[in-house]
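Q: For a teaching handout, I want to show students what a protein-ligand complex looks like in token form. Below are the inputs, and the small molecule is nicotinamide-adenine-dinucleotide. Please produce the holo structure.
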Amino acid sequence: MTTPVRIGMIGYGFMGRAHTNGYKRCPDFFPELEHQPVLKAACARSKDKIQAFADQWGYESIETDWRNLIARDDIDAVDICVPNNLHKEIAIAAAEAGKMILCEKPLAMSAEDGEEMCQVIEKTGVQNTVWYNYRRVPAVTLAKEIIESGALGRIFHYRANFLQDWTISEELPQGGEALWRLDADAAGSGVTGDLLAHCIDTAIWLNGTVADVTAMTETFIKERVHQATGEKTKVTIDDACSFLCHFSNGSLGLFESTRYARGHKALYTFEINGSEMSLRWDLHDLHRLEVFDHKDEGALRGWKSVHVTDHSGVHPYMDKWWVPGLQVGYEHSFVHHVADFMKSLDEKTPCAPTFRDALETQKVCDAVLASAKDHTWHKV
Ligand SMILES: NC(=O)c1ccc[n+]([C@@H]2O[C@H](COP(=O)([O-])OP(=O)(O)OC[C@H]3O[C@@H](n4cnc5c(N)ncnc54)[C@H](O)[C@@H]3O)[C@@H](O)[C@H]2O)c1
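A: Here is the structure, written as tokens, with nicotinamide-adenine-dinucleotide included.
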């Protein structure tokens, strides 16, 4: 007997599809879970578009106003897959209606907004999570397990990149459908909240909290046509952002993100260096974890590339999939997140990262943007 978790999905874009795929795969690959998602309703403003999405992906019904979706008695969990400026209003309304919430990242437009969201969510006690999905790539989860075992020794350095190149053209407009990421009113910030937020979440998870930061940002294209008005207006997002930080454990951090690194589409990499071991991961090769172990001796000492596909239980999540040597991909991080959310309901435990966990990343983003503005170090 399973307990259905009736999902109300808001948004049908990139994440609407990625999450829905996660919901659909969960009962097939994690059949042991008592709670299982049911695709109850999908919501967006355009009736035709959301109906087409619902038909294609198998949602039972549609809504064109998220308030109506939240008001429905047959919805247990609301999934927020819309631009960042809508997260707060929807999450607070959903929590007040007693719905569970799965919210896309970044949690909010600012830490202040995020704090308000956390307070409502905690007061209402609804189950919640934020989709920092990279935590659930098996190689990244394995990195977490190795770090937690203490095998790295004293940590000295953490560095991460998230590089893209899709906004280099001056002709690219800002705002509106598909391009809301270039409009600070919808996105809150540029690469800091969009890309570095992922790097920061993983970093905090693997290496603990960030104590202080110093940052620089740049907006390379100063004006773009806004899709809503057709007029050229000032661009107020950060096109690129680099920052240095101290982690609370005394290690040093170096982070860089840009949408102007010609040739890079989604180069997310991180490396962590400890006294005894270093680990390195690259999204383009996401099923591999590179490891240097100082204990290895002799002529063959060097970096090794672990193919994270062992089926025996030593590699996280992989016993659910194929046979050893066959890898999984990007979409599986969302399947794993769905499964962990369902498991958290089975076990009555929180599903990390919770809103409160994600607020920590928001605080770092705020400190980074403030530092870039006044050119001084900012405590988090
Ligand atoms: N976890 C990740 O790796 C990841 C990746 C991409 C995006 N995101 C986050 O997911 C969220 C959505 O991003 P996306 O790439 O899916 O965007 P998208 O542009 O592909 O889709 C946005 C969706 O929101 C809908 N929408 C906009 N306003 C709405 C409203 N008022 N009511 C109902 N629906 C509305 C649009 O119709 C569209 O379906 C953002 O917060 C983004 O930061 C996370």
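A: Two things your students might notice: The two ends are 46 Å apart (CA to CA). DSSP finds ten helices and 17 strands in the chain.
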